[in-house]
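Final paragraph of the annual report: two paired records, presented back to back.
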Amino acid sequence: MDATPEQEWEALTRPGFGRRSSSARTITDWQPGHPITRSGEWQGTSFEDEREVVEVEAPSYHWLAYDVRAAELGTRVVLEQVSNRTSDAAGNAAENWRTMLDGLKTVAEAAPQA
């Protein structure tokens, strides 16, 4: 991604980002021990997934898990989800997260540099 880690983190954690980057909505205050809820619609079916914020280290977040760090040509963002119950669920999640990461790239690259 052609943005700084700080821009990516700001875009990822800013309220309302989820609706600009994917069809899912993320609600959290990013405080450890507090809930993080993603909701939306996937292939015509509504979903809501609530987890707990484990740890936050701006600009790196490690658990769902996001890893945001500077790379040689911009920023590397890695997202890992380990709670899928089936390979079909993992494939669906991967497609959903790809859409979210593409949206993150668009939003962060449009943000002013700090």
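The closing record of the year follows.
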Amino acid sequence: MTVRMLYARPLPGVVGETRRITHAFPAPSGDEDPEQVTPLCGAEFAAQDLEPLTAVSGAPCESCIASAARRVREQSRLVAAGPTGDIEARLSRIEEQLNLIAAKVDQLSRVVAALLGW
């Protein structure tokens, strides 16, 4: 099972410029459009105070990254500990999750390298 993530950061003026970090949000299920949204780090924002992003842009929220890594690790454990049977399907799901992790690490590495001027 892959969890789709959405990314957003506070709009200019909502918080100080140094606190406009990119947060990761689990995609809402169904057609809900909440007024308050909570990223993986647990901070709370009014939905209208956020700038939606198509990917991590600028400085990422370290707590969101750590939380996302824990979620993927837990999902991998659940998949690996699943019922016996279709091992190929379970391995395929694990491979998908590892590819997702690798892509996110690569993306975050590029962001950090750009911020550091490497």
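The longest helix spans residues 87-116. This concludes the annual technical report; the extension proposal builds directly on these records.
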